[in-house]
Amino acid sequence: MELGGKVALVTGAAQGIGKVVTETLLANGAKVSLLDANIAGGEATKTAFEQVYGAENILFLPCDVTSESQLKDSFSKTLDKFKRLDIVCNNAGIFEEGNWEKCISVNLISVIKGTYLGLQHMSKENGGSGGVIVNVASMAGLLPFVAGPVYAASKHAVLGFTKSLAMSCLEKHGVRINAVCPTFVDTLLLENLQSDENLAQFAFLKEKVNSLIADFGVVKPSQVAAGFLQVVMDQTRNGAMLKILRDGKNEYEIPAEIQKSQ
Ligand SMILES: NC(=O)c1ccc[n+]([C@@H]2O[C@H](COP(=O)([O-])OP(=O)(O)OC[C@H]3O[C@@H](n4cnc5c(N)ncnc54)[C@H](O)[C@@H]3O)[C@@H](O)[C@H]2O)c1
Q: Is residue 21 over pLDDT 80?
């Protein structure tokens, strides 16, 4: 998939991984709709990118992804401005073990809603041109995470959803759906993973978190964005889970049943 003239929607794009994913898309010629609940951060990111990539290629939409109406409205406004949609990145996520229902709402329910809205607007059945959806999961979607059982549950569920849906949606809608699974990434969320407040009842495991961070390593958001670009561009990838690992290693983990059907 070439990105020139393509239109992407990225959630949680004000900072961290979403911001770098957005810049990667813009630098490769796509137009991008940035969604974030952090309005000041989203405006600042939009202003910074406009100066480099042109105001006509960027839209910032204040959006709390847990609000169905705000999310729907953001997809509609993206279509109104750019007239098409080709790429959706469901990236917004939080780590708040003490507020576990919110964690499930942001990290899982909103990803499902964003995926279904993406399909609705990109599906060849509905007059769209097809496209690709990338859900930002985590290595905590493939492995247990002792200090974040709800975070791990949300990411395991995102992967279960992504690889299951991928088995039917390419044929039916012309839309590929993949996930990226980063190890620890140098963003604000990494600080939250180490804070008593966000660890809540698992704060007693903080030393264990620190030793996991030392063992697995911390990667830059740019490495995640490179992995995102890889699964977007490679038309053969559907239902793929790309692990983003230390020392620049990005490796696929593909379920056997999907491999067989490709
Ligand atoms: N940082 C890590 O170590 C790491 C590792 C693996 C996966 N991830 C995943 O990467 C994704 C991005 O996280 P990050 O590390 O860039 O964190 P971050 O905290 O830097 O950025 C998250 C962004 O999402 C936005 N957001 C949060 N809740 C929202 C909501 N309800 N509606 C709209 N926007 C909302 C925030 O305002 C922020 O801009 C998340 O899904 C996270 O789980 C992060």
A: yes
